[in-house]
């Protein structure tokens, strides 16, 4: 670099640092500024020889992360300093954790150490275990050290997502999938809604660029019309709000690209058919004493002018979400007959919604009990305390509980408990205490006896009946939905299985002795193979419960005594197996030769995944399974995100080559208004299309509306799309979608 370029870069670094101090959400004291300055100088020195893939000096990254931490999340000077230093120990040989502790104290060192551990998590693991899920689990374990570790890691991921343009496309897709799979749910759970939205939109930009750009263009196109609508809506209620002498602001907020895409997929509608593409937010100033009263007063004013939808009222003021979110959400019929979501929040509620728990701490009253974040960390630690839990299962359960909506139920003493929607009476038992859960024999809901799989609803009062003789059984896993209950039940069942297996081992030793066979490592391995089991534990357990009996063991002993015959038989069967495999492979090659894999566009054996049924023309990828070779999935398959994030090393690029000779199954769903001759019109359109065959058709009519499912055989996606377009034009048909 020339001297002039270096000077210019140094000036840009100084400017970025000054901006960081300006945008800080908390008031910085002189000591705070000294701490941040010192951290900045160490970061500049630690990264002096580093550059990012885009070519810019690496120091811009920690400054940007610190800026997100300061401005968007609103953390303190300690966190800003830790954000500036988050990569120093990992990237610079001149600094270690001891140096950071000497210069910045124990707290900053703990946070930096936690961030360094996350970055350097070992990747040398059993290939069958998901690296990402295992890393995520370890990342959550750092909550033990300091929750700010996770918050800064989320800020780090946000900046990486904002600056990914110079990366290879496969790397972009992997990082984006991982972000959707892990970081956006985590940001949601900590209450960082703004960051969660940004992470989701940026992820969509790289996982489905065409979809992202299409929605973005349409949002920009309709912005002027949307702004006009919001101003018309606001004008109607402004006078009434002003009469009450309220200090307030009204602003329209477009829904995120990701949430619009989600609605389009869930409801099977186009962009234009998504009715709530934006929300109107009313933010009012108030004292803590009048905050709740004013929210309902504004609700009353809005509903005086616009008719509310009674089933769309969400009161998160009386019962805040477990993330700390408080607001009143109502959906009203606005001008031009359009539904509009109105969010009513005080300035305090708005800050907590946007900044998450940092704002919650700011508003925390003296003597207030432990807050939701500490509660959450305690629950998380319980789920993590069992080291045997499979990492992928853990992540899936964790995400399941993150995204589910909440219900509020009461104990017999009237204490309010929060559970995920869909929770059962058994989940409630474990929520009270593990010991209560383990000894549950029944439950009463609102005074009536109910089964353990009874799904609870908000407002239920639940009384758990216990017994000393009760204990978990495998059916309980079908009854429980929360991560906590399932973890405890699995743990208890494992212990039970081990106890039975120990008894089974002794029974097996005695029975084999009668058959003149010694129980040793060799005979155990032979038995496991003979009964087609996976582990010795499975073998001992089956003997313990009696599913492997005396006759079966005699069969094993006789096969063992005739070892020579067994050897010859196995040689013969191996040959027939090889022949069978060759035949199957030939069938695969002749019937499905239209896909090519990787940059070299090789033709490889594969199977089409049954979870999404891809057909030629669909965007697809290959996934290398452990036992079934390559399986092909659609890119928007429900399982795609999890596979791409967890098993990126097993993903193969795939695309359709010449597919003119093959045929594939697809199913379409049709809904509309029933009339005489409609079925005839539908079948006529399909039969007139030379390249589409109809395998089965079923129609139902109810109250003048009909719905139908048609199974077709088509050659590719383009032909299917043409057929869907033709069907949509039939009089009376409302929607035609591919299942």
TrEMBL record:
GO terms, biological process: guanosine tetraphosphate metabolic process
Q: Gene3D superfamilies, per this entry?
A: 3.10.20.30, 3.30.70.260, Beta Polymerase, domain 2, Hypothetical protein af1432
For this UniProt record, the keywords arranged alphabetically read as follows: Coiled coil, Kinase, Transferase
- Say yes or no: keyword Transferase present: yes
Domain TGS span(s) in chain numbering: 405-466
| MF GO annotations | kinase activity
Question: Which branch of life, at top level?
Answer: Bacteria
List where this protein forms a coiled coil.
498-525
For this record, the Gene Ontology CC terms, alphabetical, are: plasma membrane
Q: CDD domains, per this entry?
A: HDc, NT_Rel-Spo_like, TGS_RSH
PROSITE patterns according to UniProt: TGS (PS51880)
Query: What does the UniProt record say this protein does?
Result: In eubacteria ppGpp (guanosine 3'-diphosphate 5'-diphosphate) is a mediator of the stringent response that coordinates a variety of cellular activities in response to changes in nutritional abundance.
As for family, the record states:
Belongs to the relA/spoT family.
**Listed PANTHER family:** GTP PYROPHOSPHOKINASE, GUANOSINE-3',5'-BIS DIPHOSPHATE 3'-PYROPHOSPHOHYDROLASE
Instruction: Give the protein name, as stated in the record.
Output: GTP pyrophosphokinase
